[in-house]
Amino acid sequence: MRHSLGIKDSMKKNSMLLVLIATMILFNGLISASGRGSLFVPANISNLISQNSYVVILATGMLLCILTGGNIDLSVGSVVALVGALAGTLIVNLGWNIYFSIFICLLTGLAIGAWQGFWIAYVRIPPFITTLAGMLLWRGVALIILNGLTISPFPEEYLRYFNSFLPNTDDKARVFTITFVLGVIICLVVIAYTLFNRQTKKKKGYQIEPLAYTIARIVFLSAAILLVASLLGQHKGIPVVLILLAVIVLGYSYFTSRSVPGRHLYALGGNEKAAKLSGINTNRVLFFAYANMGFLAGVAALVGVARFNSAAPTAGTNYELDAIGACFIGGASAYGGTGTVGGAIIGAIFMGVLNNGMSILGIDANWQKAVKGIVVLAAVVFDVLSKKRVKSN
User: Fold this and answer.
1) d(Cα 68, Cα 265) in Å, to the nearest integer?
2) How far apart are CA 306 and CA 294, in angstroms?
3) Interacting residues of 79 by C-beta distance below 8 A, sequence separation 6+
4) pTM for this entry
5) What's the pLDDT at 375?
6) Total domain count, the chain
7) ∠ at Cα 280 (275, 283), nearest 5°?
8) Is 182 a member of any domain?
9) In a domain, 25, yes or no
10) Which domain holds residue 42?
């Protein structure tokens, strides 16, 4: 029997998205009132994407760890520093082939994740202890490789893969046209997918939201996509890193929501004993989550060194906190088994808007940390209270 989701349920499901929109409007108003311009300046949107690309990548991997039972990885910032140091040594100092160096860096990230995953999944060392040790170990190795020095600059051939724009032309009219047309194409794909997904759920008897709400969501998403496309078109075009982020987000969204191994992550986080009795190899699932986290930390490192055009000893500092915060703000449960890649991305964007907005307003860095801490705590408190309310009912 098919049931329709109520407006209240739909609003609750998208509450974090509404909070993000309200926050962006609030910051834009404050910035405009202070005479510091606008949050929606074309160059600012492009900077927002590049500055927070590492958070999106790391939050995607961190979500998989959290799904397994509220576990986290404290070592990702140090892994980013280590892989970045390795990239600088191979590409800049030794002059190795860029593609082979990238492969070695990604393999190193994967190996580190597999190393930690082995102790966590098969020896059953608590993830907090294992990754805390990794945070110290990999940071130390990074400092040894760099010898306390910063390696720069990276060759242009490397930077264009992570820090350039498409289309690569100085013709501003052409840049805007191509970017906006691409935005229109993305809108058509979103509309087609949304309607097809709704129809599929309807045929299978799943819960669906009211048609009016679906139409409103399509209109909102299309307007947002066209707005971003027009702003990027007025700047330099589409950042190459945005394409990488889209591939990662779409790929992991499909993996977690539509694949059997992805659903095993939720089963493990929901009840490990029940998952094991149902035939799921819980050790393998846990191992995969941390091996994957190491791999994505390697990707984030390659993006980070391209953005800063250097490999520094301080790279990756507090990156793990941004990733964890993004997941919890985006709706991931502190107990595991609940959360989506889309929610984690919304959380990452929210953290980016907070950082960017407060920086433009000239708010002291110490106050910025305090605000972010309160926001993360509020997100976890909301999750805990919501679960208590459900149990009481």
Assistant:
1) 6
2) 19
3) 109, 112, 113, 134, 138, 294, 297, 298, 301, 316
4) 0.91
5) 81
6) 1
7) 95
8) yes
9) no
10) 1-17+37-51+169-236
